[in-house]
Amino acid sequence: MHIQIFDRDTARLKAILSAVSKAAGRITTSITVEGISDNQTLVQAGIFSCPTICIDGKVFAAGYVPSETEAARWFSRLGITSTGPHAYACICGQCMPRFLP
Fold it and tell me: Using CA atoms, how far apart are residues 72 and 49, in angstroms rounded to an integer?
């Protein structure tokens, strides 16, 4: 899985990189997280709203700074399991989908 974070503001980019990396560190799939702030690359990628977060080429967030919790929800939505403390019997709704009988 490849995550790209596009943003012209390097301080904000570092904060988003940190949040997404923390959320990615708790899952079982190998992930690469890349921060891109080069204007030419942003234009070539067709990025008009900053920040923009793409996972495997698909836009997951644009125009706002996502939280670590929201990033964890993206992974859950993609069906990627968590290795965190809530991995097996979680009912918090953030670690994995809640299944009811």
Answer: 22
